[in-house]
Amino acid sequence: MTDNSLGLTGSDGLGGSPIVAGVSDRIPTWVRSVLVVFLLYMFLVGVKLLESGVKGLGDDAAGGLFEGITNPLAALFVGILATVLVQSSSVTTATIVGLVAAGVIPIETAVPMIMGANIGTTVTNTIVALAHARRTDEFRRAFAAATMHDFFNLIAVAILLPIELLTGWLHQEAAAVARWLPGGSDATFNSPIKGAVSWGFHQIERVLAPLISNVTALSVTFIGVGIGVIFFTLAYITKNMKKLIADRIERSVNASLEKSGLVGMGVGVVVTIAVQSSSITTSILIPLVASGVLLVRNAYPITLGANIGTTVTALIAALATNSIDAMTIALVHLLFNVFAIALTYPIPRIRYVPVMLAERLAEVAVKRRWVAVAYTLTMFIAIPVAGIFIFS
Amino acid sequence: MVLEFFKGNTQSGLAAVQATIVGMLRDGHDVFMAATDALFGGGKSKQTKREVRSTDKDINAAQRDARRLLMVHAAVNDTDLLLVLQYASIVKDAERIGDYAKNIYDLVRYGTNFDTSEDSAELERYRDAVAQLILDAAKAFEATDAEEAQRLIGKADGFLADYDDKVKEAYNYEGPTSEAVARALYFRFLKRTTAHTMNVLTSLVQPLDRLDYYDEAPEDRD
Question: What is the ipTM of this complex?
């Protein structure tokens, strides 16, 4: 490196400006797009593998796996803990859809699991907010923005789970919608995609079956491969979609910064459907709220929109199955979030209750930082683990 | 708003920041001209005062917009940190041009009028050179033209030494003290405006750690 008389570095005085170099993506857009379609297809194959693997175990063995969690509270805590462990409600809900399709988990048990997945997914935000712990004002805002999602989900579960347990209203509504969908009037759900997915499944079966002669071992392998494929494909769909539509996300967030209500909710829905991850959407909001660019109350509807958007993964997963129950549980996920918003958001007096609770918790956490860590560990690990032990 | 997501071919992210900075430079040129026109015969007037203040406010608002855009970009694209820091650095330089125009207009408010000076034409030539530099910098920045930026930096670097000489001359000025002070400040403000414009240009030819040294003497830039 040389210096010329102007103080410019580089032999030609052009020392390498990142502005001129610009942002370049090593993978062309069309390749990423094809990759996303392929990953989406493989995701559906993963759900099919899981479903077939569980079915292959037979009713007794497969049913035994979930025998202990017929209690709805145990199911709720399983949903929370599973989602915290994989850091993705999409993986949990897609797995639940696969298990319901296989007939291993009844819808009544799957409903609280889905609700638990809704709660568990917010742990990512809370962890992101903890990164701001050294700066008091930033941390106050970031922690409030993260935990308002927790409080909304807790309130939603507190209202809708008892109603569901008493009346079965939520899954009955979902079943009615599933029957109304094209192909849903039969006992099985006739998705147009399932033929293509079955082909992919049979290719994998053709490779694995000669290697593993024992039916049980083959089924367990299907389950393991299925969960692995679901986890891997969802992670890479999210990663690639985020790259593909980063500009669009940026535009949408910029456009909604000073708006609130339905606009923010719409942005949350659309962005989350596109990236297939509510954690991506809400994690983008945390640093913006922490820095003061976005108000906690303006981030709130975007977060609610993300809650709705994330339900698309279970709906897509249900398309890979033959089961109307699978479609029903996927719709439960959607309706749970839609009803929770419909019950709490339109009434101004209760609209911001989750935000107020989150701000109060953030005030406490700012004074005693350990409270934030204790809250995260208790809420997402200790209570679910204890709950599973107590109620299963 | 939600439809923003589905729109194609609209400006986004860093392109919007770039356009904002170009707009700030063009506004900077306009406010610089308004302030210096008053210095060369226009004199103080409510209209000019209003124009200078409101354009400077617009520039400040644009700076806040650019910072907001950068924060959103950083939140969405966690891999573009270098670019975000580079733009964040120069948006401050673009904003300072408006501040110095305001300082120049303050000279008019204190009673300075170079129109009656013997060397008025020479003083105005320096003004014209700075005004042209700001406009050329805006064009080069808009086109991300590194070679043009390098050429402009070389050209502008020659002005900086002249301004220092002119400030020294003001120390030995034999006319009224108020005029000596006005000249010293005028050239100081031209130097600062030039240096900030050069900093914007440098961002096209140098990485982040090499920005912001054009208000230093050449021997102090390493």
Answer: 0.73
